Amino acid sequence: MSANEDLWPFLPGRRTLRIVSASGATLTTDDGREILDLAGGAIAVNVGHGRAEVARAMAEEAERLTYVVPPWATPSRERLVARLRRAWLPPGLTRAYFASGGSEANESAMKVAVQHFAARGMPQKYKIIGRELSYHGTTLATTGLGGHAARRIGLEAVLQDHPRAPTPYPLRAPAEVATEELGRYYADALEAVIDAEGPETVAAIMAEPIVGSSGGALIPPADYWPRIRALCDAHDILLIFDEVMTGFGRTGRRFAFEFWDLTPDLLVSGKGLAGGYAPIGGLFASDRVLAPIAEAGGEVMFHTFGAHPAACAAAERVLDILEREELVSRAETLGAKLSGWLHDAFADHPYVAESRGCGLLQAIEVVADRNSLEPFPQAAGLTRSIVAAALERGVYCYWGGTGTIRDIVCLGPPFSITEAELKHGVAVLREAVDTAIAQLG
Ligand SMILES: Cc1ncc(COP(=O)(O)O)c(C=O)c1O
Fold this sequence. Notes:
By secondary structure, the chain is α/β, with parallel strands linked by helices. The protein is 36% helix and 15% strand. Helix 4 packs across helix 8 and helix 10 packs parallel to helix 12. The chain is globular, with a radius of gyration of 22 Å. The protein starts with 18 loop residues before the first strand and ends with a helix. The structure holds pyridoxal-5'-phosphate. Pyridoxal-5'-phosphate is lined by residues 42, 101-103, 106, 135-138, 208, 212, 242, 244-245, 270, 281.
């Protein structure tokens, strides 16, 4: 079957690539072209493409168990939770709920936060605060909470409004705030939102501890999260960390929150949990958060395909590979090298404001003017041109930004990628940036 039969994608009239196989960090198109996957798909693939042992584990499980309703136990579900508790989750966050992906898991976290306070006799404590620059998923609730301008277009009429606080953005922080004051500045801004809403009405704050592709690997000031944790404790507000993109080693830690000495109340994961092999997202919670719901006779309704046995088997095997091959520490060391190569390639670039990130979540931000940080016009579509120019040269990078914040290109390769592949990818990205800007005229 050829690519011209208009079977894909969903929207008519769009052209797309046709991938027929993948191995390691390489995708192969139907005409035999090889593409270096510097984006791990949607920054999801961590152990690399084509791991036969994961495919086998899924096939064996599917042969044993087609489907079992999520509230019931299966050996694959139990094994996955046992492994998560033993090697991945922080003490206390021992209870696991599995959805089919990040959006569903985030929305489940929002619901659990609201249910928690309702069960404690505080139904008026229901608001969830998000942040201005963020992405939490594609359902209406997560789109409403998130701060991703482009992904809200055409949905404005039905999106529920949530209070939002500024996202720490060191590059674009107000010039009058000293660097060492930035953590306090952004924490004060979030506190002002809590005060304006009334802390007695706020159930939770949901945020990515390190912002993924919407902000392009934005790392907050060191004292920001400890201040927010203290605010949450003071006001009986649940802190929900969306680690759908950053979880399971992407930043060189098991979870990004481990860069700080604190734990969220609810932790959400997706992508890396099964390394792209199966659709699964995880919500992890403590007894403290869940007990009131259970005691009040409540339920956390399951998704039909949540905790699918074959997906649990895939996740278990992917986590096993991450542990066995020490891929999280590889993401840290390789990430440090990648960061250096990006710096070498772009530090003196007239149109690159900065390269940033940690582990194997890295990004560059392209601007029209390095001094004022003025972006290129949105209509120029520069991010897409850069991604297209890199693809023409056989390298796939991930488009980042939200439309308002733009011309961010992200890298999130498999942790198994080689140094030579990464160096080649960086050189191609530099060429792609230059080509796309030259095309602007
Ligand atoms: C931080 C974050 N949260 C949530 C999601 C949504 O996850 P999914 O696409 O699996 O529903 C994504 C996806 O990119 C994400 O990056």
